[in-house]
Specification:
The chain is an alpha/beta fold and 465 residues long. The chain is built from 15 helices and 15 strands.
């Protein structure tokens, strides 16, 4: 069904087509008519399914009708990156319509944002903290808000923003329309929904805990001291276009980036200790191809909306199983195909067990043929049962060790014996994964790895200049 069949005006359809979109995604197909009817909505969908357009298009159509002065639409986002990207989406989708939008978030000065608000705006896209600052100083008046959009509510709950979110809800007119999006809806989120919405329609696309079908994912078991060496081997052997590497800590992200630069890779870094200017430069450089690799912490797991990311590598196993889904959701977006790998040490079997239980599927375990594993035998991560991870028993020790690949102070992993082979699955019965030498199915194995199978060679990642 084409977009014009959803009741959108021709100028919005023109904007959609100008962005290169074809038919609407499932979340767009189901959500747009509901929002156009004026109903409240709870939407749950996997990341990368076109959720932003699902609420932006009907809201832009509503703005075509004359109304009272003042901001008419408020969009709340958990991070500044998401706020900036949603504003860009509004401008791109509404390029042939007449509306004004202002983005309000921290990390930059108040001056330009205050000026944009004074000049008048129809849409405010904001993070909670900066929005509350402007409300308290009287720069933002929410009395004429017609549509309130609460996006990534589960993330805002994780970040401790729910009290302020409820305050914003109370400041908006009771007659408003409220759109509520959350990847998951546990009891705490359900309570917020009951507080904010009236008789909402509910739309759930797929299992929100599951991995997007367009993403092929697997783990590479490795001893801790060889993590960085294995990362380099993967970058040498996989046919990468652009890569996001996730580290659990900011220090780890910086360390990985420094070591990758020594290997002549073009690398950007994104984490909370970077200034807004640095974060914007890194993200824009990654989008336009200046950087082929971005090393990031979980701040980026929901804050990066970049098409064409071919691979995601979890250098560290995420602490929260939900973050696994959001991390690897940075690839395979907009129905494209992507690959996601996780480097896991044997001691992290319990954490991997939790992830498998959360997504409802086993994660295939791979080995890299030709890689010089310690003891000449690839390790195996036992995910059959939960158990305490001794690597995280001491918080400071765990944080201090993350991200470098070698032992603390070693300055790097082994660089000898780079593999000249390919990856193969440790699935039950030694089954190889289907398609391009990557896993699409299969399950993890707790026994010894099978003998390596042959696979097609990969081309080198283009080196940064």
């Amino acid at each position: 069904m084409p977009f014009k069949s959803l009741g959108l005006n021709p100028k919005l359809v023109q904007g959609v087509l100008a962005m290169g979109y074809g038919d609407p995604t499932p979340i767009q197909l189901r959500a747009i008519p509901v929002v156009l009817e004026g109903r409240d909505l709870i939407g749950s969908a996997q990341t990368g399914t076109g959720k932003t357009a699902a609420f932006a298009l009907p809201v832009l159509q509503r703005l075509a009708k004359p109304a009272a002065k003042g901001p008419r639409v408020l969009v709340l986002e958990p991070t500044r990156e998401l706020a900036a990207q949603v504003e860009t989406a509004f401008r791109d989708l509404g390029r042939f319509t007449d509306f004004r939008a202002a983005v309000v978030h921290g990390g930059v000065g108040y001056g330009r944002q205050r000026e944009a608000l004074r000049n008048g705006t129809d849409v405010i896209i904001a993070t909670v903290g900066r929005l509350m600052d402007f409300i308290q100083e009287g720069a933002i008046d929410l009395r004429n808000i017609e549509v309130l959009i609460l996006d990534e509510v589960d993330r805002m709950l994780d970040m401790g923003f729910i009290r302020d979110v409820k305050r914003v809800v109370e400041l908006c007119p009771k007659s408003r329309q409220t759109l509520f999006f959350s990847a998951t809806v546990p009891p705490e989120i359900e309570a917020v929904a009951k507080f904010a919405l009236k008789d909402p329609a509910r739309i759930v696309i797929g299992r929100t805990q599951s991995v997007n079908e367009s993403v092929k994912h697997a783990m590479f078991p490795v001893q801790y001291d060889q993590k960085f060496e294995l990362l380099i081997a993967l970058l040498e052997k996989e046919d990468f276009q652009s890569v996001i590497i996730f580290s659990r800590t900011k220090h780890g992200a910086d360390k990985i980036a420094r070591r990758l630069k020594k290997e002549n890779h073009s690398v950007a870094v994104l984490h909370a200790n970077r200034s807004q200017g640095q974060r914007t430069t890194a993200l824009e450089g990654f989008k336009n191809g200046r950087y082929e690799i971005m090393v990031a912490t979980d701040i980026a797991a929901r804050g990066i909306d970049v098409t064409g990311v071919s691979h995601v590598i979890n250098y560290d196993v995420p602490e929260n199983p939900e973050d696994y889904v959001h991390r690897i959701g940075r690839t395979g977006r907009a129905m494209a195909v992507g690959d996601a790998y996780m480097l896991a040490v044997p001691e992290e079997g319990g954490d991997c067990h939790d992830i498998e239980r959360f997504i409802g599927a086993r994660i295939p375990q791979l080995t890299l043929d030709g890689f010089a594993y310690e003891g000449n035998r690839p390790p195996v991560v036992d995910t059959s049962r939960p158990f305490k991870n001794p690597m995280r028993s001491k918080k400071g020790q765990a944080q201090g060790r993350q991200g470098g690949g070698g032992r603390p102070g070693s300055g790097g992993g082994r660089q000898g014996g780079r593999p000249g082979g390919k990856s193969q699955a440790q699935g039950r019965g030694g089954k190889k994964p289907a398609g391009r030498g990557n896993p699409r199915g299969g399950s993890a194995r707790s026994g010894p790895a099978p003998a390596p199978a042959k696979a097609s060679p990969r081309s080198r990642l283009r080196r940064g200049r």
